[in-house]
Specification:
It contains three helices and no strands. By secondary structure, the chain is mainly α. Helix 2 packs antiparallel against helix 3.
């Protein structure tokens, strides 16, 4: 009985190992290779490297600005609508914040669109 259990254990272990080996092939094949960055200098040129760093930094800055404007605009709109719905303020009372929030959402969306288009 013990020999039978050991043989079954060996067969199950071998089957699991084979399934694991077969499963990693398609998974690793689906991983894309990273593209060469557009800002990478063709040679070891210091000016090209600085230009690439500046371009990457500006893209990250645009993304950060876009996210910040969008989140602040959305929070302002939620606050303005909640003030109107609860009757604490009138539409005229929150118009400035509502318009500023709408502008923040618009400019934030524009910045995110531009930054994602560059990347």
């Amino acid at each position: 009985m013990k020999k039978t259990l050991n043989r079954m254990k060996t067969k199950i272990t071998a089957a699991w190992a084979m399934m694991g080996a077969l499963a990693t092939g398609p998974v690793l094949a689906a991983v894309p290779t990273p593209p060469t960055p557009s800002t990478a200098p063709g040679t070891s040129d210091a000016i090209s490297w600085v230009e690439g760093v500046f371009e990457d930094t500006s893209e990250v800055g645009i993304l950060a600005l876009g996210v910040t404007l969008f989140v602040l605009g959305a929070a302002g709109m939620i606050w303005a609508i909640s003030q109107i719905m609860t009757g604490k303020e009138t539409i005229a009372g929150v118009a400035k914040i509502g318009l500023a929030s709408a502008a923040g959402i618009a400019f934030g969306t524009y910045a995110l669109t531009q930054a994602s288009g560059i990347i």
